[in-house]
Design goal:
This protein has 261 residues and is mainly alpha-helical. It contains nine helices and four strands; from the N terminus they run ααβαββααααααβ. It has a single domain, classed as Arp2/3 complex 21 kDa subunit ARPC3.
Length: 261
């Protein structure tokens, strides 16, 4: 109960930062929805059929891979290139695999449910900042990758997708940390942002402010994360692809009714 009261107090203390982060979550869903609608429309025009946005197959993928992602989220560890409060885990891999198999909306749903399960079982961080950060940074990785792959599913495009996703998680992750996440963390934990900078300086003496912290610690951390996740996804997806692509029940294009005599 005290944790919940502290969370509410922290959020009300600086609503602007937290509202901005919530809007980022909404934007992730909006982008995924728009892309899915465009892709389904194209499939209807080309093939005459298109899988429903939340077909039985997609719901099954969301359920199974969200559970796997949650378990992987629990297996976390620090890296020497960043302060110990940045934890490396492999929980974005199931979202990326699910997104490759079923589209960006599935990827976003896996990211969201994974974080929700963590809140319900592990409990939230102050102000939900850790959970929001995990979702936003993960979405910055899986959305660009799965959007590109959604329209052309070849091995070459998959490689381009992963490279793009890795570049996005590196740039977007550093930007979010500089302007939103680190200030929000400072507010949520009731400390000055200089505490985080000092932790970065202990890793690398070149870290002197928020921007050098994000450039020297956060960006390389996310670059490594995106690269490792991409490589592992390539290795695993090829084996799982035949199972995940089981022919679903599709929505057929409506044919115009013949005029009655």
């Amino acid at each position: 109960m005290n944790n919940l009261k502290d969370t509410i107090s922290n959020i009300s203390g600086a609503p602007g930062r937290f509202v901005a982060l919530i809007l980022l979550i909404a934007a992730a869903f909006a982008i995924a929805y728009f892309v899915e609608q465009r892709a389904r429309k194209k499939e209807l025009e080309t093939n005459g059929t298109a899988e429903a946005m939340f077909s039985t197959r997609k719901i099954a993928i969301i359920g199974v891979f969200s559970a796997i992602a949650f378990v992987l989220m629990l297996i976390e560890f620090p890296l020497p290139i960043a302060p110990p409060f940045y934890k490396f885990d492999f929980s974005d891999i199931p979202a990326l695999i699910g997104g490759f198999a079923a589209g960006p909306m599935v990827a976003v749903m896996i990211e969201f449910i994974k974080v929700t399960l963590n809140v319900l079982i592990q409990g939230p961080t102050p102000g939900f900042v850790g959970e929001i950060a995990n979702f936003c940074v993960g979405a910055a990785f899986v959305i660009p990758a799965t959007v590109i792959y959604r329209f052309k599913k070849t091995r070459k495009v998959a490689l381009i997708s992963c490279i793009t996703g890795t570049a996005c998680i590196t740039l977007v992750g550093a930007t979010l940390n500089a302007f939103f996440l680190l200030p929000a963390y400072a507010i949520a934990y009731g400390c000055d942002i200089s505490v985080f900078i000092e932790a970065g300086t202990a890793i690398n003496s070149a870290v002197t402010n928020v921007f050098t912290f994000c450039a020297i610690c956060v960006a390389p951390f996310n670059l490594l994360k995106g690269t490792v996740d991409s490589v592992l996804t390539f290795l695993v997806y090829k084996q799982l692809s035949p199972i995940l692509k089981t022919t679903p029940m599709a929505v057929r294009k409506r044919e115009p009714k013949a005029e009655e005599a």
